[in-house]
Design brief:
The complex is a heterodimer of chains A (656) and B (142).
Chain A: H1 12-21, H2 23-32, E1 48-53, E2 64-68, E3 71-76, E4 90-100, E5 103-112, E6 114-119, E7 122-127, E8 134-142, E9 145-155, E10 160-167, E11 190-197, E12 204-207, E13 213-218, H3 223-227, E14 232-237, E15 242-245, E16 256-259, E17 265-268, E18 271-273, E19 282-283, E20 287-291, E21 296-300, E22 312-315, E23 321-324, E24 337-341, E25 346-347, E26 366-368, E27 374-376, E28 392-396, E29 401-405, E30 418-421, E31 429-435, E32 445-452, E33 460-462, E34 474-477, E35 483-486, E36 501-505, E37 510-514, E38 526-529, E39 535-538, E40 550-555, E41 565-568, E42 572-573, E43 578-584, E44 587-593, E45 597-599, E46 608-611, E47 613-614, E48 619-623, E49 634-642, E50 651-655
Chain B: H1 3-26, E1 78-79, E2 82-84, E3 93-94, H2 105-110, E4 116-118, E5 138-139
Antiparallel strand pairs in B: 1-3, 2-4, 4-5
The chains are: A mainly beta (656), B alpha+beta (142).
């Protein structure tokens, strides 16, 4: 039995009663009803309804039925763990009715042995034969609307393996219009260094749906603290300046983290051991869930693939969390792909996750694409000397295929450059800003490269140069549709700090210089959007081992303008729903921005989603995208922007 | 034994030996270092998407073999033979300094480092003793 499926078996007693009560009907049904109609379960829209047969020909009534989150099983010779089904001579039929955007879709299936894929009962892939693990793909145009996808699989003898998915179309919907208005004078904004310091070496920062910020140090790059089991986390209230202590049992320094669909925070990995004269940093396999309502951690099971020091965690459209990268418990590159089942709050067993054993580096910046694949943007932390970290690829999680993406410049100078999915997410454009090479004595790059993932065969193109060459770059999406880049250095010494900031406009593809953070922001620094529209910057850990605890806050131009407001809205936004908002001001744009969960300037899940808006005045309606890959489930900050381009303070809504 | 038979026997012996070595490596006997032997965690079927795999573009990156990826010692670019002398805190004495300048006490002081303690090998010769300073030696003191 796998660990990731929502099981809804018919109970033995209930089945027996049903059998006795309807024996005659059942006898007839065996003859006249197709196997598909024998299914007795109801699955969520994103799930596959699977009928499992104790024969290799999909014949008769299924031995059992269950809902599967995805089709990705390496059952080997043990079989699917269904009563009455062994490791050989069985078959499965999965069906799913799903809402498709119009476009070209690529259906991919891997099987050992036979596989068939149907779209609306029309064969798309037909490879129904004994064979070793083989991958097949086909492309079909799909009209907008609900369609039925069916996957049939059989296992003869030997090891059983099946994976199936569809990607490649993934229409993210129309590109929203440009943001309204914009600053026409007095556009520089200003910085403020807060009169208090952080009580924590904030290597990790996560904005919570309470409006507070979880700051995590763990041992905070202090080997002595680690040796004494002194691990620190605090919850910062930016409104009051108060910090609440969070008991921290293990060293979450250098973990990966992200918001789960229910608003709690998943933290995975950490530091097992600091480097010695003969060894590397070593990674922990631990994981914790942080509850913003109680400010407490709960330890959950370890990642099954081993230790991860510097993993990236990426939210997927089905609610699960993908994790990969970093160094393992021996200080070597961890090649495992981990998958967190958010519904069960546990990691999937290793052999239920497609593994390619490709090494993705340390804190690899991977962005969820509209079609569900992952885009590796070629930026990372350290690791230019490690295999596979240089360059850019697309990774299809379901099938384990990796496709090279050409055109990124300075591929060996993208260490601690910034990657950002430019607003709006529907445009599917990703930018890389700067980056360096920790193993080189050379200065970093000022190059910015941009890619349009809506293209059939995407490739990077050169963007405008940053105003200054630097690494340790932070890029923060603002509610007015711009991207604020700040902080950085040429090298990790105070005299090499680059005090420069600028505003990137995705519409005009230009940088406009802005005031620089008065404090140096180099290694172990983060910048993130606060719910009121300001940007907080925190952390700085130069090579000397010093750690600057100062906090600086940037107020963009709109902070000094009259602000519109969202005075009423539902707390829950379902995908594809239309929502009514009560607003003040003449609203021209409404956006949902995912709260930051950032470390080492890396936040793979940062995104801003435009909500198409209708109506004027105080009552307007917005439409939530139906594609969960555009807007993965979780809490979002909703901003309403008036026709002058001024955004409101955020209202928190839950999506999905 | 004829010369041809001797030659045939030698070739056979070489082939068997090479085959054995390849087989032992494949089974992990002569694999990577013991710490990363791959035997400590479950490993799914390796390279299931190997030869014959097809995708839309045909550009498939090579897959790993299930073993951890080799990582450079001190992946953070620091020389971890040294700690801060005052409190043993880890610092990042660079493997290589910006602009190719030598990593010496002058550079380190200028960059804000205080006195350091040698915990491994004085690889940067900061003690000025040819790299032979014993562990515990304080270097680059004011």
């Amino acid at each position: 039995m796998t660990g990731s499926e929502k099981r809804r078996r018919i109970g033995r007693r209930r089945a027996l009663a049903a059998l006795l009560a309807t024996a005659a009907v059942q006898l007839v049904a065996v003859v006249v009803v197709t196997p598909e109609s024998a299914r007795a379960i109801t699955c969520a829209p994103e799930e596959w309804a699977g009928d499992y047969f104790a024969n290799p020909t999909l014949t008769g009534a299924p031995a059992d039925s269950r809902c599967d989150g995805n089709i990705g099983f390496d059952w080997g010779e043990t079989g699917p763990g269904i009563g009455g089904i062994g490791g050989a001579g069985y078959s499965v039929r999965w069906t799913r009715n799903a809402l498709f955007q119009a476009g070209e879709y690529s259906f991919t299936a891997t099987a050992d042995d036979g596989i068939r894929v149907y779209l609306d009962d029309v064969l798309v892939i037909d490879e129904w034969r004994d064979q070793g693990a083989s991958t097949f793909a086909a492309t079909r145009p799909v009209a907008a609307g609900t369609h039925k996808v069916t996957v049939e699989y059989y296992q003869g003898v030997g090891g059983g393996l099946v994976r199936a998915s569809y990607t490649g179309g993934g229409d993210p919907g129309p590109v929203p219009p440009p943001p309204p208005g914009g600053c026409t004078g007095d556009c520089q904004g200003s910085w403020q260094v807060l009169p208090y310091e952080s009580p924590v070496r904030s290597v990790h920062a996560t904005v919570l749906h309470t409006g507070n910020v979880l700051l995590v140090a763990g041992s905070g790059n202090d080997g002595a603290a680690a040796a004494n089991n002194q691990f620190v986390s605090k919850v910062w209230n930016p409104s009051t300046g108060e910090f609440a202590d969070v008991p921290t049992q293990e060293d979450l320094f250098c973990a990966g983290h992200t918001q789960l669909p229910d608003g709690r925070i998943l933290l995975a990995g950490g530091t097992l051991e600091y480097p010695t004269p003969t060894s590397n940093y070593k990674g922990l396999a631990i994981s914790y869930i942080f509850d913003p309502m109680t400010n407490t951690y709960t330890k959950i099971g370890d990642m099954p693939g081993g230790g991860h020091w510097y993993p990236s965690l990426v939210n997927l459209g089905d609610g699960s969390v993908f994790a990969t990268g970093g160094l393992n418990e021996n200080g070597s590159g961890n090649v495992a792909v981990e998958m967190f089942d958010s519904r069960k709050s546990q990691w999937k067993p290793f052999n239920e996750v497609p593994q390619t054993y490709f090494y993705w580096g340390l804190y690899p910046n991977m962005v969820l694409m509209a079609d569900g694949r992952l885009f590796y943007a070629g930026t990372h932390t350290f690791g230019n000397a490690l295999p596979n970290t240089s360059g850019s690829e697309i990774y299809d999680i379901a099938t384990g295929t990796i496709t090279d993406v050409p055109g990124l410049r300075d591929i060996d100078f993208r260490d601690q450059g910034a990657t950002v999915l430019l607003p709006p997410a529907q445009a599917q454009k990703v930018a890389d800003f700067g980056g360096g090479n920790t193993y080189s004595d050379l200065d970093p790059t000022s190059h910015t490269d941009i890619i349009d993932l809506r293209q059939q065969d995407p490739q990077w193109t050169a963007g405008p140069d940053l105003p200054a060459a630097k690494m340790y770059v932070s890029a923060v999406i603002l509610p007015d549709g711009k991207v604020f880049e700040t902080g950085g250095a040429k090298h990790n010494y105070p005299e090499y700090a680059v005090h420069e900031a600028s505003m990137y406009d995705p519409v005009t593809n230009t940088f406009t210089p802005m005031p620089a953070d008065p404090l140096a922001r180099m290694y172990h620094s983060e910048s993130f959007l606060l719910p009121d529209g300001r940007v907080a910057s925190i952390g700085n850990n130069p090579a000397t081992g010093a750690f600057d605890l100062g906090i600086s806050v940037y107020s963009p131009w709109y902070m000094s303008r009259p602000r519109p407001a969202i005075t009423a809205a539902a707390e829950q936004f379902d995908l594809g729903s239309t929502q009514n908002l009560t607003v003040s001001g003449n609203i021209g744009r409404v956006t949902l921005i995912r709260p930051a969960s950032v470390t080492h300037q890396s936040d793979p899940n940062q995104r801003s989603v435009d909500l198409p808006t209708t109506g004027t005045g105080t009552n307007i309606s917005v439409t939530v995208p139906s594609n969960p890959n555009i807007i993965p489930a979780g809490y979002y900050m909703m901003f309403a922007q008036d026709t002058n381009g001024v955004p409101s303070v955020a209202k928190w809504v839950h999506v999905g | 034994m004829t010369r041809r038979k001797i030659l045939l026997s030698a070739v056979t012996a070489v082939c068997v030996t090479v085959g054995l070595l390849v087989g032992l490596r494949a089974t992990g006997v002569f694999g990577p270092s013991a710490g990363d032997s791959g035997g400590t965690r479950p490993v799914a079927a390796e390279n299931t998407l190997g030869a014959g795999n097809r995708d839309l573009s045909g550009r498939i990156q090579p897959h790993g073999n299930g073993r951890p990826s080799p990582a450079t010692l001190w992946v953070d670019g620091c020389d971890h033979n040294y700690v801060k002398a005052s409190d043993n805190m880890n610092v990042c004495v660079p493997k290589i300094a910006p602009g190719g300048v030598p990593v010496d006490c002058e550079f380190l002081r200028k960059s804000g480092f205080g006195a350091l303690k040698v915990t491994g090998t004085d690889s940067k010769n900061l003690a000025g003793t040819g790299g032979n300073a014993p562990r515990g030696t304080t270097v680059c003191a004011d």
